[in-house]
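Hi Y.,

Following your request, here is the sequence exactly as I used it, all 358 residues.
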Amino acid sequence: MHHYQKSYKICDTNLVSKLKNIFLIASPLQVICAYEFSKKYLAYKNIICPIYINGADLRNKQIKNTIEFFKFENIENIYIGNSFLSKVNQIHTVCKFIFLRLKLGRRNYRLIFGDFRDKSMHIARIFFKPKEAFVIDDGFASYLAGEKYLSKSIFLPKLNKFEEFILRILRHYKYLKDSKVSLFSVYSELLNGDIFLQNDFLSVRKKIKYKNINYDENLAFYLGTKLSERGALSLDDEIKILKSSLIYIQSIGKKCIYFAKRSTSKKKLDLIEALGYKIYIPEYPLELYLMDSEDLPSLICGFGSSVFSNLPKLFPDLKSLILQYPIKVFRKKSDIYEYNTFLEIFKNQPIEIINIDI
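Below is the corresponding structure, written out as tokens. Let me know if you'd prefer a different format.
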């Protein structure tokens, strides 16, 4: 693994006096990373632009609560529909970005967005023509984007033939594909190149009152997933895995709270509760919930997520445990590849991995 960290551009006062940081935000974690970015890459104004989706009430509430926690002052809310047609949502989002660009006027921008895979975020690069463009953390997908695209100097995710044709006709394809996008991420230390910038959460850590924290040695949090919801595995297999996981957690003397994803269905939660888990549906992302609490679990466990990269930096005394799902339950080759990649990375980290079978 390569370890490279580019110097933070916080000393160039001339650059700071001219630049605005524009954050296009679509998740609570992205808000947390935006705060850290804003403290390392100074600008004369930080404008956070949360994307609120019609009907996604809990998601929207988590984003709003996280923005309020970090006290962002310049906020430009973006409201979009929630059509079952993804192209309609994409077009709606792009139109909102155009209006935002017109409202903000002609200025020097850094454009910072949170999901490299989101094509509408890249289309925003056309309208803003930023001096610099960055992707910030949005889970393990950030590492995969760095490995698959950015490390090869490809700055645009794979498009279908029609999308590529339209961009070529409009003469934007080459600009998007070749104009540099840097990655500001906890995973940057695993990637090689000066476009990979390390997110160490040092500024976020300053908001944590460590001396007031009490760790409950008898309590574990199990991090929920949306694997069955998106078809990665069957709900039946996920429930069987959760049952085996709970047996293990109880065997090491801990009670367990299932920290649910915001999109988890009531049917799934009822099945999980019947296994013996207590259910918690958060109004904050896990990182923020822990930052705002004094009574914490002593163990965070689960299938695997970016949380296992973030928490050691934020809470070094909080133990983590990956409960490894059996590969045979996954339906898609892409999920098997991504999970194997995740496990390979964490085999080299100081975190315990336990195999769970069904």
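Confidence is low (pLDDT under 50) at residues 1-11.

Thanks again,
Q.
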